[in-house]
């Protein structure tokens, strides 16, 4: 008897837990469905109307300022939909927007970039189509279970005390024991079906959003082609870098070490017969060893500077600026450190640009700004030189583009004749090891 009591108590707990779990899932699904409907009617529909009006007002001048604001609001709502789709239905919707260049841009240029992005118009189409789709799928996602609960808990008892009837299945005058039983049975069936089916309709809504808010196949194909090209360029750049290292070792440190070995061998032979000559050979060997050590250190710094590993991008760039023959105004605001490969790519890109300033610009002063914003490392290098820098004509800038492209980075050059030259480089990355205070100054 004790065992039966324990088994019955365990079964009761199990059923109770199942009911609680089912109830939580049903309520969660209902809440999400209602949220989607409210978002569609209270946010999407007004934004669509504002977007249409703002575009229509562009010739009047008002739309030039209003349209970017409205479309940015639509992007914010679309990003929220992407987050919900991933969290609620495990549907990933990549962001398709073209990256915006760093720095301030005029209203007309900003408007032109926004309207030229196909993703902006797909967002606008989703904004209006989401209104009926969210309503239908939201009602199906949350309404079945609610309607079933109404049939189980409310309709039968209201029918006993009023003229209330539940649906077209049992008219009021036919209600009785059979009507109440039918209401309970059908309502329970809707509750049982509505619970598991609700997430299915939520996922259908997420897939609908994915069809409009994700990048198109043409965009994905272009992206794949771009990545293939950048990978090929990165492989070529890596092979060229390896050849440079081999050449520097062969022509520099290796040749000096061979000469060092020969001098030491000759000194050993001359030690008994001509000590003075042996001493001269040993002195030359000592000098050659020091030169070889210096060349090896320079080679190591060219691969990965120790100061970069020890002090990060901030400290390494500052140490580099101190070696330049012209003053460099710097503002560096990095609340952490990028991953080592990204940090190395950023350092060498800055180093190459500063070397170009010294060699080719004729500048008397340069400035440098490095900051992290919106998940991107932004580096801006400028000088007051003669201008006329062309990435297509210089292998140095082309090499920087290849180095940045390997990390999905970009580079933009503004260099009119007469100057100034401003180079903006961006690298998508996350930072770690946060710190609190930005740094600035002049080197």
From TrEMBL:
<dbReference type="GO" id="GO:0046983">
    <property type="term" value="F:protein dimerization activity"/>
</dbReference>
<feature type="transmembrane region" description="Helical">
    <location>
        <begin position="175"/>
        <end position="202"/>
    </location>
</feature>
<keyword id="KW-0597">Phosphoprotein</keyword>
<feature type="transmembrane region" description="Helical">
    <location>
        <begin position="55"/>
        <end position="74"/>
    </location>
</feature>
<feature type="transmembrane region" description="Helical">
    <location>
        <begin position="29"/>
        <end position="49"/>
    </location>
</feature>
<dbReference type="InterPro" id="IPR050482">
    <property type="entry name" value="Sensor_HK_TwoCompSys"/>
</dbReference>
<dbReference type="GO" id="GO:0000155">
    <property type="term" value="F:phosphorelay sensor kinase activity"/>
</dbReference>
<keyword id="KW-0418">Kinase</keyword>
<keyword id="KW-1133">Transmembrane helix</keyword>
<dbReference type="Pfam" id="PF07730">
    <property type="entry name" value="HisKA_3"/>
</dbReference>
<feature type="domain" description="Signal transduction histidine kinase subgroup 3 dimerisation and phosphoacceptor">
    <location>
        <begin position="241"/>
        <end position="308"/>
    </location>
</feature>
<dbReference type="GO" id="GO:0016020">
    <property type="term" value="C:membrane"/>
</dbReference>
<keyword id="KW-0067">ATP-binding</keyword>
<dbReference type="GO" id="GO:0005524">
    <property type="term" value="F:ATP binding"/>
</dbReference>
<keyword id="KW-0812">Transmembrane</keyword>
<dbReference type="InterPro" id="IPR025828">
    <property type="entry name" value="Put_sensor_dom"/>
</dbReference>
<protein>
    <recommendedName>
        <fullName>histidine kinase</fullName>
        <ecNumber>2.7.13.3</ecNumber>
    </recommendedName>
</protein>
<dbReference type="InterPro" id="IPR036890">
    <property type="entry name" value="HATPase_C_sf"/>
</dbReference>
<dbReference type="Pfam" id="PF13796">
    <property type="entry name" value="Sensor"/>
</dbReference>
<keyword id="KW-0472">Membrane</keyword>
<feature type="domain" description="Putative sensor">
    <location>
        <begin position="35"/>
        <end position="213"/>
    </location>
</feature>
<keyword id="KW-0902">Two-component regulatory system</keyword>
<dbReference type="InterPro" id="IPR011712">
    <property type="entry name" value="Sig_transdc_His_kin_sub3_dim/P"/>
</dbReference>
<keyword id="KW-0547">Nucleotide-binding</keyword>
<keyword id="KW-0808">Transferase</keyword>
<feature type="transmembrane region" description="Helical">
    <location>
        <begin position="124"/>
        <end position="149"/>
    </location>
</feature>
């Amino acid at each position: 008897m004790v065992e039966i009591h324990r088994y019955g108590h365990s079964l009761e707990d199990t059923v109770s837990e199942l009911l609680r779990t089912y109830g939580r899932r049903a309520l969660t699904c209902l809440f999400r469905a209602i949220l989607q409907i409210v978002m569609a009617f209270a946010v999407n529909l007004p934004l669509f109307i504002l977007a249409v009006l703002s575009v229509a007002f562009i010739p009047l001048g008002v739309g030039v300022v209003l349209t970017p604001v409205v479309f940015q609001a639509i992007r914010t709502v679309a990003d929220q939909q992407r987050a919900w789709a991933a969290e609620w239905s495990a549907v990933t919707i990549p962001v398709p927007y073209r990256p915006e260049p760093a720095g301030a841009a005029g209203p007309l240029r900003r408007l032109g970039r926004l309207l030229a992005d196909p993703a902006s118009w797909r967002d606008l189409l989703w904004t209006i189509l989401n209104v009926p789709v969210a309503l239908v799928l939201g009602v199906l996602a949350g309404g079945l279970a609610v309607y079933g609960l109404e049939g189980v808990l409310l309709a039968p008892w209201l029918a006993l005390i009023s003229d209330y009837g539940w649906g077209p299945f049992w008219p009021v005058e036919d209600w009785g024991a059979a009507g109440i039983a039918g209401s309970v049975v059908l309502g329970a069936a809707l509750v049982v079906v509505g619970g598991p089916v609700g997430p299915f309709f939520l996922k259908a809504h997420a897939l609908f959003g994915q069809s409009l808010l994700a990048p198109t196949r043409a965009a994905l194909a272009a992206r794949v082609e771009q990545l293939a090209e950048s990978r090929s360029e990165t492989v070529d750049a890596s092979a060229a870098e390896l050849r440079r290292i081999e050449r520097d070792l062969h022509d520099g440190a290796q040749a000096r070490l061979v000469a060092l070995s020969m001098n030491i061998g000759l000194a050993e032979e001359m030690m008994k017969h001509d000590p003075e000559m042996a001493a001269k050979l040993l002195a030359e060997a000592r000098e050659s060893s020091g030169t070889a050590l210096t060349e090896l250190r320079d080679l190591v710094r060219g691969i990965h500077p120790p100061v970069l590993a020890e002090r990060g991008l901030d400290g390494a760039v500052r140490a580099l600026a101190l070696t330049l023959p012209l003053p460099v105004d710097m503002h560096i605001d990095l609340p952490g450190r990028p991953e080592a490969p990204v940090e190395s790519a950023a350092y060498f890109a800055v180093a190459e640009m500063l070397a170009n300033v010294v060699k080719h610009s004729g500048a008397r002063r340069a400035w440098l700004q490095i900051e992290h914003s919106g998940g991107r490392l932004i580096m801006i290098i400028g000088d007051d030189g003669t201008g006329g820098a062309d990435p297509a004509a210089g292998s140095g800038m082309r090499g920087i583009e290849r180095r940045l492209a390997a990390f999905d980075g970009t580079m933009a050059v503004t260099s009119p004749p007469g100057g100034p030259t401003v180079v903006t480089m961006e690298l998508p990355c996350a930072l770690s090891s946060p710190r609190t205070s930005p740094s600035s100054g002049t080197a």
